[in-house]
Amino acid sequence: MWIAPWCLAASSTSVARPRFSYPVAGNTTSPQLPEPSLFSRNMERTFIAVKPDGVQRGLCGEIIKRFETRGFKLVAAKFMQASEDHMKNHYLDLKDTPFYAGLCKYMSSGPVFAMVWEGQNIVKLARMMLGETNPADSKPGSIRGDLCINIGRNIVHGSDTVDNAKTEIGLWFKAEEFVAYTPCAQAFLYE
C-alpha cells in the first residue's frame, strides 16, 4: 500500500506538503494554492473529557469521530481516573452550587478520557457540537442531543470559554504530553 510522504511526517517543521494548482481564466499558468496559516484566524485549543458515564457506555470513539470528522486536530489525550481533589480543582467555579460535591464525587467514580483539541474557533464550535448541559434542551445532531437523556449523565465535558480552556488544559496536561504535527487534510480545512 502506498502512503503519501506528507502524511508520514511527525512534526510541522518537516512536513513536505503537496502543491495544488487550479486553472485561472485567461491564464496559461496555474498558480499555487497558498499554504494555510495554522496559528491565525482564531486558532484555539479546548479541553474535552468523556465523563465516566460516556466511558462506561463505550462512547469515546463516537465522540472522537465527531471531532475528527469536523476537522479538528487531537493534540493530547489520556485515559485516567481522576481523584476527587482533582475534580474539585477542575470544577472550582461551581463550588457554591448545591450539586458541586456530588458532581466531583461522580466524576472521580470511574475512568475519564481527557483530550485537548485544536482548531479555528474550537471553543465555541465544540460547545455547539456538545449541545446544552441538559440533554433535553439539546438539538438533534449534537452529541448530547443524540446520545444521552439526563443532565446528571450528560457524557461529556467541554470548556466554555477560551480562558477556562487554558486553565483546564493546564490542570490535566503537562507540556511534554502534547504532540505537534500537521494533518494531511489541513490545506483542505483552512484557507
Automatic annotation (TrEMBL):
<keyword id="KW-0460">Magnesium</keyword>
<dbReference type="GO" id="GO:0005737">
    <property type="term" value="C:cytoplasm"/>
</dbReference>
<feature type="binding site">
    <location>
        <position position="99"/>
    </location>
    <ligand>
        <name>ATP</name>
    </ligand>
</feature>
<comment type="similarity">
    <text>Belongs to the NDK family.</text>
</comment>
<keyword id="KW-0539">Nucleus</keyword>
<keyword id="KW-0547">Nucleotide-binding</keyword>
<feature type="domain" description="Nucleoside diphosphate kinase-like">
    <location>
        <begin position="43"/>
        <end position="180"/>
    </location>
</feature>
<keyword id="KW-0963">Cytoplasm</keyword>
<feature type="binding site">
    <location>
        <position position="51"/>
    </location>
    <ligand>
        <name>ATP</name>
    </ligand>
</feature>
<keyword id="KW-0067">ATP-binding</keyword>
<dbReference type="GO" id="GO:0001726">
    <property type="term" value="C:ruffle"/>
</dbReference>
<dbReference type="GO" id="GO:0004550">
    <property type="term" value="F:nucleoside diphosphate kinase activity"/>
</dbReference>
<keyword id="KW-0418">Kinase</keyword>
<comment type="function">
    <text>Major role in the synthesis of nucleoside triphosphates other than ATP.</text>
</comment>
<dbReference type="GO" id="GO:0046872">
    <property type="term" value="F:metal ion binding"/>
</dbReference>
<protein>
    <recommendedName>
        <fullName>Nucleoside diphosphate kinase B</fullName>
        <ecNumber>2.7.4.6</ecNumber>
    </recommendedName>
</protein>
<dbReference type="GO" id="GO:0006228">
    <property type="term" value="P:UTP biosynthetic process"/>
</dbReference>
<keyword id="KW-0966">Cell projection</keyword>
<feature type="active site" description="Pros-phosphohistidine intermediate">
    <location>
        <position position="157"/>
    </location>
</feature>
<dbReference type="InterPro" id="IPR036850">
    <property type="entry name" value="NDK-like_dom_sf"/>
</dbReference>
<feature type="binding site">
    <location>
        <position position="144"/>
    </location>
    <ligand>
        <name>ATP</name>
    </ligand>
</feature>
<dbReference type="InterPro" id="IPR034907">
    <property type="entry name" value="NDK-like_dom"/>
</dbReference>
<feature type="binding site">
    <location>
        <position position="133"/>
    </location>
    <ligand>
        <name>ATP</name>
    </ligand>
</feature>
<dbReference type="GO" id="GO:0006241">
    <property type="term" value="P:CTP biosynthetic process"/>
</dbReference>
<dbReference type="GO" id="GO:0030027">
    <property type="term" value="C:lamellipodium"/>
</dbReference>
<dbReference type="GO" id="GO:0006183">
    <property type="term" value="P:GTP biosynthetic process"/>
</dbReference>
<dbReference type="GO" id="GO:0005634">
    <property type="term" value="C:nucleus"/>
</dbReference>
<keyword id="KW-0479">Metal-binding</keyword>
<keyword id="KW-0808">Transferase</keyword>
<feature type="binding site">
    <location>
        <position position="154"/>
    </location>
    <ligand>
        <name>ATP</name>
    </ligand>
</feature>
<feature type="binding site">
    <location>
        <position position="127"/>
    </location>
    <ligand>
        <name>ATP</name>
    </ligand>
</feature>
<dbReference type="GO" id="GO:0005524">
    <property type="term" value="F:ATP binding"/>
</dbReference>
<dbReference type="Pfam" id="PF00334">
    <property type="entry name" value="NDK"/>
</dbReference>
<keyword id="KW-0597">Phosphoprotein</keyword>
<dbReference type="InterPro" id="IPR001564">
    <property type="entry name" value="Nucleoside_diP_kinase"/>
</dbReference>
<keyword id="KW-0131">Cell cycle</keyword>
